[in-house]
Amino acid sequence: MEALIEIQHLSRYYGDYGAVQDLSFAVHRGEVLGFLGPNGAGKSTTMRMITGNLAPSSGSVYIGGVDLLEQPVRAKSSLGYLPEHPPLYPDLTVDEFLSYCARLHRIPAARVKSAVARARKRCGLGESGKRLIANLSKGYRQRVGIAQAIVHEPAAIILDEPTVALDPNQIRGIRELIRELGKDHAVLLSTHLLPEVQSTCDRVLILNEGRQVFAEDLTTISGPDHPPALIIGLAYPPEPSVLLDLPGIRQVDVLQSGRFRLCLDGASDPRSQIAQWVVDNGWGLLEMTNDSGDLEQIFVALTTGEAA
C-alpha cells in the first residue's frame, strides 16, 4: 500500500528532555491509524511536527512522498488537519467559512463552489451551507471542522480528538464519517478513547514517555484468530532483542519494571522452554501469564506497568 504519511526516526528534545524519541511509522492509503497514549506521552508534539507547526530535533516527515522539511508548502498541500479545537469563525456561514478555507488551500476560484459543496456533502452537512456556524450544534461544528480539513481533497488527514465533548449520537455520526474517509485517504486519528479506536481504526500505535511501545493490527488484537501472547516479568531482564531468540517468539513489546509482552507464533506452546531458558540465564522469572489480547489491558500494561 502507498504510504501517505511516513515518519522516520523523529525526535524532539527540550534541553535534555526527550518529548519524542526515535519515532518511526507510516500510514497508508485506505487505512485509519489510531494514535494512543496517556497525557504527556508525546502525541501532541508528534502531531505538531507532522503538520509542520514544530520543527523536529532530528528525523524526517514525508507527506504523500514529499519531504515536509525540504518542501513544506508542497507537502502541506497534501495534508488536511483537524486540531482538537477547530479554528472556526462563528460569525461566518458554513459556505463562507469553507470557501475561505478553499482559497487558503489555493483552490482555483472557478472550483471553489464545487469543492465546498463536495466537502459539505461528504461531511453530512446537507443544507447547512447558509447557516451561521455560531448557530450549529457541537456535532455539526465538528463536521465543519472536518470539512475544512478535506475541502482540498488531501491525500492524508490528521484528526485530533474529533469526538471530544460530543453526545453519543454525534459520536456515532463522526465515527461513521471517519470510517468513510478512511476508504480513500490515509487517516491518523489521535484519541484517548479506546472504544473509538476499536470502532474506527485498522491499526493502533501506542506512545508512552515519548517512545513507541506498541504497534499492531486491530484484527490481531481482538479477532477470533489473534496470535497468543505471554506477559513475563524478570528480575534481571536482558535486552529485548535477546528475548527474540527465545523459542516461538515473533515480537517483543517492552512494558515497565522488567516486564515484557511476548507475541507467540502460535505453532506450539513454548512456556516450558521459555521458563527453562530464563532459569538457565539467571534472569529471575517473577511472572508468566497469558495475555488475552484485549486493547484496554494492553494499553494499561504498556503505560502503567500494571498486571494484565
Explain this structure to me?
The protein is of the alpha/beta class and 308 residues long. The protein is built from eleven helices and 14 strands. It has helices spanning 43-50, 72-76, 94-104, 109-122, 138-150, 168-181, 194-200, 218-222, 240-243, 271-281, 295-304; strands spanning 3-14, 17-28, 31-36, 58-63, 66-67, 79-82, 156-160, 186-190, 203-208, 211-217, 229-234, 249-254, 259-264, 285-291. The strands form three sheets. Strands 6-7-8-3-9-10 form a six-stranded mixed beta sheet, sandwiched between helices. Helix 3 (94-104) packs across helix 4 (109-122). 33% of the residues lie in helices and 29% in strands. The chain is elongated. The protein has three domains: 1-78 and 154-222, P-loop containing nucleotide triphosphate hydrolases (Rossmann fold, 3-Layer(aba) Sandwich); 88-149, no CATH class; 227-292, Alpha-Beta Plaits. 40% of the residues are buried.
Radius of gyration, in angstroms, nearest whole number: 22 Å
N-to-C terminal Cα separation, in Å?
34 Å
In round numbers, the mean pLDDT is 89
Question: And the CATH topology of the largest domain?
Answer: Rossmann fold
**Which spans have pLDDT < 50 for at least 5 consecutive residues?**
none
Order of helices and strands: EEEHEEHEHHHEHEHEEHEHEEHEH
Please name the CATH architecture of the largest domain.
Answer: 3-Layer(aba) Sandwich
Q: Largest sheet, if any?
A: 6 strands, mixed
Summed up, the domain count is 3
User: Could you state the oligomeric state of the chains shown?
Assistant: single chain
The fraction of residues assigned to DSSP E strands is 25-35%
CATH superfamily of the largest domain: P-loop containing nucleotide triphosphate hydrolases
Question: What spatial form do the alpha-carbon principal axes imply?
Answer: elongated
| Name of the CATH first level of the largest domain | Alpha Beta
* Tally of helical segments: 11
> Which strand order spans the largest sheet, edge to edge or round the barrel?
6-7-8-3-9-10
What structural category do the secondary elements indicate?
alpha/beta
Helix content class: 25-40%
> How many DSSP-defined strands?
14
